[in-house]
Task: inverse folding
């Protein structure tokens, strides 16, 4: 219920309500109404009405104005929306049969339809260049001391020479077998040289494997990376124990065994480098040398495989040992036969003497 106000005070409050914006805040409205009441003479509310209650009486009017404005805005928006929907509903669809295909309904994932895709300048040789750079950096060996590098490279030259000789002699044997004569050597001469070269390669490989194991003995004596005792000495024991029996194997088995031994030693040397037992450059140095030696062994095996059915297998050390053992057994059997014959002859003489 709105309180009753007397005289000019009532008219002042009415003007205040009419002039106040619907967006005025509640504290501002309270402050303005109180000032108006104090300035009006004799315009007092009933004694039982407080200022807060007086302002609360005008709140329904403000809310009604705000609700009216919100309703007008909503009606305006709805009218615009209805007009747009009506216009879209009356529009006719354009027909484009030429744009319909099996791929017209597929949504592009990597780019939008109608937006030209930017061409990227892709370097097709980037991967190859990266690989070449890695190989170049690996084989540069810039951290390896020059003396060790030169002597190590000189050490693989006999392996390369015997491997290339095996490949050429195998080719010459095939050429002579096909045409009747070799390019440089005859078939018999090339076969004889091949039987000389391959034992040299196997023997030299056994020496190199033993040397690679002995390096760890020197590092242990120098106390490089600390003292490790039997764990480091084991390198120098296992390497020759595996290498030297290969000289008794057939050529193919000997080369394969040495190939595995070289790779096992490289793996062991790489682990030792990671543990700090060898200089930091040693694993890279060993990789390059092992790569050359391994490629030489593979080339020898390939060349040997091309002529395996065209050459005679010369007896190797194992065959010589077998023949020596067989000859010894034959000699023992012959001696035993002669001894028994002498015993029989002696017994017969004794029997004859007793008969007489």
Result:
């Amino acid at each position: 219920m709105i309180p009753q106000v007397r005289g000019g005070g009532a008219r002042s409050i009415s003007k205040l309500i009419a002039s106040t914006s619907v967006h005025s805040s509640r504290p501002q409205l309270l402050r303005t109404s109180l000032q108006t009441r104090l300035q009006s003479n004799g315009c007092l509310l009933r004694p039982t009405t407080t200022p807060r209650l007086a302002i609360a009486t005008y709140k329904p009017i403000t809310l009604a104005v705000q609700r009216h404005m919100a309703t007008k805005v909503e009606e305006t928006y709805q009218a615009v929306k209805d007009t747009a929907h009506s216009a879209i509903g009356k529009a006719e669809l354009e027909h484009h049969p030429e744009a319909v295909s099996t791929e017209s309904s597929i949504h592009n994932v990597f780019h939008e339809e109608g937006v030209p895709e930017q061409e990227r300048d892709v370097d097709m040789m980037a991967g190859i260049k990266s690989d070449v750079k890695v190989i170049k950096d690996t084989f540069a060996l810039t951290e390896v001391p020059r003396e060790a590098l030169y002597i190590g490279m000189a050490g693989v030259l006999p392996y390369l020479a015997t491997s290339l000789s095996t490949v050429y002699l195998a080719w010459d044997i095939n050429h002579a077998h096909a045409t009747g004569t070799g390019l440089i050597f005859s078939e018999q001469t090339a076969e004889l040289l091949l039987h000389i070269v391959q034992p040299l390669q196997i023997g030299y490989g056994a020496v190199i494997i033993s040397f690679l194991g002995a390096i760890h003995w020197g590092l242990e004596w120098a106390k490089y990376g600390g003292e490790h005792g039997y764990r480091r000495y084991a390198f120098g024991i296992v390497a020759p124990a595996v290498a030297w029996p290969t000289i008794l194997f057939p050529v193919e088995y000997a080369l394969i065994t040495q190939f595995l031994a070289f790779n096992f030693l490289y793996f062991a040397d790489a682990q030792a480098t990671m543990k700090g037992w060898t200089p930091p450059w040693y694993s890279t140095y060993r990789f390059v040398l092992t790569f050359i030696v391994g490629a030489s062994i593979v080339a020898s095996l390939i060349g040997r495989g091309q002529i395996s059915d065209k050459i005679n297998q010369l007896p190797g050390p194992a065959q010589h040992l077998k023949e020596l053992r067989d000859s010894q057994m034959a000699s023992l059997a012959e001696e035993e036969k002669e001894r028994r014959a002498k015993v029989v002859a002696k017994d017969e003489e004794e029997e004859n003497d007793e008969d007489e």
About this structure: DSSP finds twelve helices and no strands in the chain. Confidence is low (pLDDT under 50) at residues 1-27, 38-58.
